[in-house]
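Encode chain A's predicted structure.
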Amino acid sequence: MFENKFFLLTLPIIMKETRLFNRMLCIMAAMYFAFSASAQEKNGGNGLLRFAKKITSFIDTMAVNGIDPNYISTPQKPWQVIAKSVVNQSDMKMKSTIDGSKYFEDVPGEINWSPRILTTPSTAVGLWAGYRGYGIGYTKHVGGDDGFYFVLTAMGGRYGANVRFHNFKTNRPKVHFSGYMPEWVDFNKELDLGSPIRVNSVIADAYYMFNGKQFSYSAAYDQSAFQLRSAGSFIVGATYYHSSVNYASDDNADFILFMGDTGKAQQWQASLGIGYAYNYVPSRNWLISIMAMPTVSFVNKMKGYKYDSKLKELILGDIISDIDLDEYMEIWPTGTTTHNGNIHLNADVRLSISYNFDPFFACAYGTFNRFSYKNGSNSGSFQSWYVNSSIGIRF
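Encoded structure for chain A:
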């Protein structure tokens, strides 16, 4: 239920970021109509069939418009079904600095509390289906962290766009603690939280290739085109990132205290960048593609949800052996804080290797993303790598 609500709430935000995503939704609808029209043709659904054919004809025209046939060609069979296996890992770092003298006796100053959520490399399996680079996919984790990926894709001759939804949870974060207690203490420890930390993220990216005549982005990432000769292109791109980290639970009252009373945090970041991509064709049917694009954020917003509990009273008061600890662990919301951060430099890197043996094809590609934030005494970063291996068929 939570995943459904998250998808419904975040999807409209993502779609507003660029016209490419709005076009993608129209294409998804057209694909559905195309399938429905084929089934209804025998029952007099010719009008719907003609409409669907106009849409697919428009996509076909876009796929070949302006390309150099010496460098790029398009498959005669436009539909694709792809079986995917994904290996990924996420690394979320958070840092909070609090005034320890407010909570502990004989503590002269600041305490640094730095949780790190490093998921184990996780494996997911799923399917993707689409028409000439416009498609939808879903993968479910079968090993590692308990999460899922939902992917929307739109790729044309000169552009590419993707939206990737990911969620996971853990109740064993690693924490780096340092401060005077009253002597200097510095250690790393893995905690066992009573309730898990839940992380939900959305990463969207869109690219435009200046050399769409000779360079094909789709040939490298969904094989809806063939790169016949090696070629490169300067690219411009935009990325959008949204994350929600939630550990607001009575069981985590002590963790929340050390996080500066923050029990939930949301981040929005939008970036623009310019980079270069190159498709290398070492031999017939093989393709190696690499892309690197540094980006600069122009939107970097952080919202923290504050909570309080009676733990401070317990810490500052006399310790009583016979107490109801649950009463002191109960948390309640006290408001929110919002911070607009400074400009940050991030990175978007991709590598792809693919092989075509028509009507089948195989591909392996990897991506790396990094985002950072700062909100008063709280700061952190989110990094993720994502390796996709797939085999598909055209029809």
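The longest helix spans residues 19-40.
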